[in-house]
Design goal:
Strand content of chain A: 25-35%
CATH class of chain B: Mainly Alpha
Largest sheet of chain A: 4 strands, antiparallel
Shape of chain A: globular
Radius of gyration of chain A: 11 Å
Number of strands of chain A: 6
Number of domains of chain B: 1
Bound molecules: protoporphyrin IX containing FE, iron/sulfur cluster
Mean pLDDT of chain B: 89
GO molecular function (chain B): heme binding; iron ion binding; monooxygenase activity; oxidoreductase activity, acting on paired donors, with incorporation or reduction of molecular oxygen
Distance between the termini of chain B: 45 Å
CATH topology of chain A: Alpha-Beta Plaits
Helix content of chain B: 40-55%
Largest interface: A-B, 18 and 25 residues
Oligomer: heterodimer
Largest sheet of chain B: 6 strands, mixed
Strand order of the largest sheet of chain B: 1-2-3-9-6-4
CATH superfamily of chain B: Cytochrome P450
Radius of gyration of chain B: 21 Å
Structural class of chain B: alpha+beta
Pfam families (chain A): Fer4_13
Distance between the termini of chain A: 16 Å
Protein name (chain B): Cytochrome P450
Number of helices of chain B: 15
Order of helices and strands of chain B: EHEEHEHHEHHHHHHHHHEEEEHHEE
Number of domains of chain A: 1
CATH topology of chain B: Cytochrome p450
Number of helices of chain A: 2
CATH architecture of chain A: 2-Layer Sandwich
Number of strands of chain B: 11
CATH class of chain A: Alpha Beta
Order of helices and strands of chain A: EHEEEHEE
Structural class of chain A: alpha+beta
Region (Disordered) (chain B): 1-29
Strand content of chain B: 5-15%
Shape of chain B: globular
Protein name (chain A): Ferredoxin
CATH architecture of chain B: Orthogonal Bundle
Amino acid sequence: MWRVRVDGACIGSGSCVGVAPGHFALGSDNRSRPLSDEIEPDEAILDAVASCPVEAITIEDADTGEPVEP
Amino acid sequence: MALQETAPTEEPIAFPFPPPSSLYEPSPEYAELRDRRPVTQVTLPDGKTAWLVTGHAEARQVMIDPRFSRKAASGPDTPKLGLAAADDSILGMDPPEHTRLRRLVASAFTARRVEELRPRVAKLVDELLDRVETLPRPVDLVENFSLPLPVQVICELLGVPATDRHVFHAWSDAVMNDWRADPAKSKEAIEELSRYFARLIAAKRAEPADDLMTALIAARDRDDKLSEHELVQLGLGLLIAGHETTANQINMFLLTLLRYPDELARLRTTPDDIPRAVEELMRFVQLGQGGGGLLRVTLEEVELGGVRLPAGAAVLPALLAANRDPRAFDQPDRLDLSRADNPHLGFGAGVHHCLGAQLARMELQEALRGLLRRLPGVRVTVPDSELRFKSGMTLRSLEALPVTW
Ligand code: HEM
Ligand code: SF4
């Protein structure tokens, strides 16, 4: 399983929400957050990581805490 | 006011609206609609109808929600508003094709990569202003500063010889032209630019360099990530997407600041506020009359702001109206350069969120910093009524901006 995080650098571009629908949502604070804490590995999340203009999204292995991306 | 009686079933309103009387405020129709019906049917010049979206939350949804498609809006039957050239570009695609191309270039435009370019851009600003200072006044800021800056920056990034600027600039203007103004000319310009890029790509294949075009060529030749046609379209799209937009913003930022001397004076004493000021000016200044976002088409029935849109509906997000929505911004019609909470949509949102947003922000910050520092008494030598805009452009773009100091 993966654990996905969005850090404070997020500028609310909404790119991740569009690239990986169902995985992210923009809050009223104009920040993106992952919709669930742990998810099955999914290529769309890798696309979201690569598309984020401020590199705010990270993925780690939920068991080991090892970074998956970037 | 007539709008008050207009029930949703009545005649749609004609769009685009008549131009506003001031350069600094959107046409009043936008605010009237946003307050009453943030999702409204309008009639376009070709007689087709579209839904104009003037609320912030609603416009943002249109740009982020994948049920609103740019690809479907690029078909022959949808209304052609303005920038039809975008249809054959990354801006005319949906995921997954869009994601594939965007991933190839995204890493070159991240905040981190852009920060590495900042010293070079600051130096360019200084060099341009060194030259401006030697010219007889009034000096045309468009020709000598606001246009050459973004052109030089993107040329260096892509690896396009900036000395070719005179070659591609006329084509670039024609491509950015409103399609309706002269379709044959726009088409011809795209073909000329495509040929120019094909030659450039051949030259780079023979002699690779440390630049983005070389990296994209490698992505094609080594990894087969994109077709030759996509390579050419992507290159020329990147080359021209940021010229008029950034130049226009530099010009309009200066004009706007000069109209708010108190805010300008405060900014001079607190240059650390420049990034924040750039965000506020991005919110406040309108890119063009058309509203700012490109048309989308619904792939299925969608509820938007309490309105049920059928599948296949043309939807136009009016970014300039969204940026003045009181539900999203406190005192939206006030220019407040220290505004902290600023979720403006000046760079769009969602998968098509401006690729060059971080680059443009940095260029605008450095341009503003340079102008404030080097030309402290700068003023425009003609009244607004004498400012001339390029005709037929989808963006509002000044022919010239004569200044002295
Ligand atoms: C202040 C200057 C700029 C403004 C106001 C601006 C505005 C925008 C907006 C609003 C969009 C989204 C349009 C839509 O989805 O309907 C966009 C997309 C885009 N912009 Fe910018 N832009 C600016 C500068 C730049 C620069 C410097 C570049 C250089 C690379 C650039 C490249 C692009 C590209 C490639 C897209 C399409 C992205 C995609 O479809 O994935 N822009 N821009
Ligand atoms: S792509 Fe990055 S900046 Fe944009 S909303 Fe997602 S996390 Fe935030």
